């Protein structure tokens, strides 16, 4: 059992009321998830569809499974029956597929739109223009999106020692989140209350800048091999 229980308690104590901890369990065995579950943790994050499906079938039914990786449209159907929150929605096409699969399953699926805030080319996400165009489309044609509910934004800061840069990237994401909130009042499909930002290396900065959902893996489960 490789989980760091002391660190878990420390992080839980540190998080203010209203900040959700998503324990990122990708690549880690079901036993490690159960160990945290027994301490009361219910929100877990996974990056790979097959791994998530396997774990979901073995583990308790009251776990909230967050999909935090890059989701391919052709795999949405595997997680649509049970996923709690999809963090990385980065295109209208992916949103349309989630909507379709949600309706098939008689559900409304909660999603976060992923915004590209880092300097690295490899990180996925929409820019400000694409975000606002999508929000406007949903506001104008809500019936097209009856199977999804936009709960907020998600982003990953640059992997960098330059903490001022990381802070500025989180600040940008918070500004866009506030813009979405003010633009989408009274829309059933857009109910933004979640700003998912911050990982093991930068969650304190993220919270300082307004995050209310942090995704923490290695501090809890140890480094990934
Ligand atoms: C792996 C991952 C995390 C957790 O990273 P740690 O540095 O281990 O805390 C958070 N968010 C996303 C999107 C990830 O892929």
Question: Can you offer a commentary on this structure?
Answer:
The mean pLDDT is 95. Helix 4 links the parallel strand 3 and strand 4 (85-89). The protein has nine helices and eight strands. Strands 7-6-5-4-3-2-1-8 form an eight-stranded parallel sheet. It is α/β, with parallel strands linked by helices. The protein has helices at 5-14, 30-38, 49-58, 76-79, 92-104, 128-140, 163-183, 203-208, 218-221, and strands spanning 20-24, 43-46, 64-67, 85-89, 109-115, 148-155, 190-196, 213-216. The structure holds pyridoxal-5'-phosphate (PLP). Pyridoxal-5'-phosphate binds next to strand 8.
* Sequence stretches where pLDDT stays below 50 over 5 or more residues: none
Shape: globular
Total of DSSP H or I helical runs spanning 4+ residues = 9
Proportion of residues in helical segments = 40-55%
Major sheet summary line: 8 strands, parallel
**Any ligands, ions or cofactors bound here, and which?**
pyridoxal-5'-phosphate
- Strand order across the largest sheet: 7-6-5-4-3-2-1-8
Rg from alpha-carbon coordinates: 17 Å
Write down the oligomeric state. single chain
Taken as a percent bin, the fraction of beta residues is: 15-25%
User: Could you tell me how far the N terminus lies from the C terminus, measured between alpha carbons in angstroms?
Assistant: 15 Å
Classify the secondary structure makeup into a structural class: alpha/beta
**Average pLDDT for all residues:** 95
């Amino acid at each position: 059992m490789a989980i760091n229980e002391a660190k878990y308690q420390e992080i839980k104590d540190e998080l203010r009321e209203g900040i959700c901890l998503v324990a990122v369990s990708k690549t880690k065995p079901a036993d490690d998830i159960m160990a945290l579950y027994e301490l009361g943790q219910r929100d877990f994050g996974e990056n790979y569809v097959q791994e998530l499906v396997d774990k979901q079938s073995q583990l308790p039914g009251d776990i909230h499974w967050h999909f935090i990786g890059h989701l391919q449209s052709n795999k949405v159907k595997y997680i649509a029956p049970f996923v709690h929150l999809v963090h990385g929605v980065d295109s209208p096409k992916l949103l349309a597929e989630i909507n379709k699969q949600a309706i098939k399953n008689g559900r409304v699926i909660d999603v976060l739109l992923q915004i590209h805030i880092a300097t690295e080319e490899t990180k996925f996400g929409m820019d400000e223009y694409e975000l606002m165009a999508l929000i406007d489309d949903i506001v104008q044609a809500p019936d097209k999106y009856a199977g999804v509910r936009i709960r907020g934004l998600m982003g990953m800061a640059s992997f960098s020692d330059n903490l001022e840069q990381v802070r500025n990237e989180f600040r940008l994401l918070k500004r866009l989140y506030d813009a979405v909130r003010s633009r989408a009042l009274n829309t059933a499909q857009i109910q933004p209350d979640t700003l998912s930002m911050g990982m093991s290396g930068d969650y304190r900065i993220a919270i300082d800048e307004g995050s209310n959902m942090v995704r923490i893996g290695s501090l809890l489960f140890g480094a990934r091999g």
